[in-house]
Design goal:
The structure holds two protein chains of two kinds. The relative contact order of chain A is 0.12. Chain A is built from six helices and no strands. Chain A has one domain: Arp2/3 complex 21 kDa subunit ARPC3. Chain A is 73% helix and 0% strand. In chain B, 23% of the residues are buried. At the A-B interface, helix 2, helix 5 and helix 6 of A face helix 2 of B.
């Protein structure tokens, strides 16, 4: 029997996307392991990776990593193609669209905390929209908005702070590396 | 697309004391504070939207389109409403109301259980009885509008 050798040409860009997607998937798993009182609320730690990538490598890399993360974490958690998966998907699409816009805001005025808050609320809007149109076609759903909005506010701020801190630190590392070289 | 993240540039001197207490403050940029406050306002508004229609005060029972009784929610009570196919029983307790029994075949209004928000309504169509919670403010009525 001959061994079939399939070689895939990979670029350094692919490697980077794979590495960062792995980090995002890990955080997505951590997310789902954190117990929270209301179903549907989670910290969204994986968005930290999305925002760091957005700042460092641009929007398309961030979109790739988000897509890979949703698919892989859906497979790992066993909810691939289930309603939870589609909610996650619609939330991610909305927040990526909003991120594409807010990342263009002036740097010195709006930082990662703004991005994170915008992304969190866009995620909430995307999920609610899909849930209202498809899963629970009843306006009673909107009675949950205040609780979800509060969660988006709290976790959006926390994730934004972590992202800002990470970007600040990697900036120092980057500067040190370039100075040493 | 690579972006520069200047560290320490957004640290004005007078804020030093605050930053020693809350080191995270220095990570906020001017626009971030604005977005954060806007998000806080949105949360606050969404909570006030929850209590829209004011405080639930009365339970209005209608039979055949006419008001049969207007019951104060603060007192526990029980009334029987005669209709074309039998008697519907409504109970008020702990500032909420429900249809306890109804002769209708589907029992939708009974299975709806307790209702307590201003604007909530349980309708027993076969017996032409409706039970509605009335608040201190007028609520947009999607049924009659």
């Amino acid at each position: 029997m001959t061994r079939s050798i399939i070689e895939l040409e990979t670029t350094p860009e692919d490697h980077r996307v794979a590495r960062l997607a792995a980090a995002a998937i890990t955080l997505a798993l951590v997310d789902s392991a954190i117990p929270l009182p209301l179903p549907g609320i989670k910290p969204g730690l994986a968005n930290i990776v999305t925002m760091v990538v957005l700042a460092r490598h641009g929007w398309s890399a961030a979109a790739w990593i988000t897509g890979l993360r949703i698919t892989a974490s859906g497979l790992l958690l066993g909810n691939f193609l289930s309603p939870a998966f589609f909610l996650s998907f619609s939330g991610a699409v909305c927040s990526l669209c909003v991120l594409a816009l807010v990342v263009r805001l002036p740097d010195h005025v709006f930082g990662p905390i703004s991005w994170s808050l915008f992304a969190a609320f866009a995620h909430l809007a995307g999920q609610l929209l899909l849930a209202r149109l498809w899963l629970i076609p009843h306006d009673g759903l909107f009675y949950l908005v205040p609780f979800f909005a509060t969660a988006a506010l709290i976790f959006g701020t926390i994730n934004g702070l972590i992202t800002a801190r990470l970007l600040g630190e990697t900036e120092i590392l980057h500067k040190a590396e370039t100075q040493n070289a | 697309m690579s972006r520069a993240f200047p560290t320490g540039t957004a640290v004005p001197a007078p804020k030093q004391n605050v930053e020693m207490l809350f080191p995270a403050i220095s990570l906020f940029r001017p626009g971030d504070c604005f977005v954060f406050l806007a998000a806080c306002v949105f949360c606050f508004l969404s909570f006030s939207f929850l209590s829209r229609g004011g405080i639930a005060e009365k339970a209005v029972v209608r039979q055949g389109g006419h008001i049969f009784a207007r019951i104060d929610l603060s007192r526990a009570s029980r009334i029987d409403i005669p209709g074309p196919i039998g008697t519907t029983t409504v109970v008020v307790e702990n500032r909420r109301a429900r249809v306890l029994s109804d002769p209708g075949s589907h029992q939708y209004c009974v299975r709806q259980g307790w209702i307590k928000r201003a604007g909530d309504i349980a309708i027993c169509a076969p017996n032409e009885v409706s039970l509605e919670i009335e608040g201190s403010d007028e609520v947009y009525d999607s049924l009659n509008y």
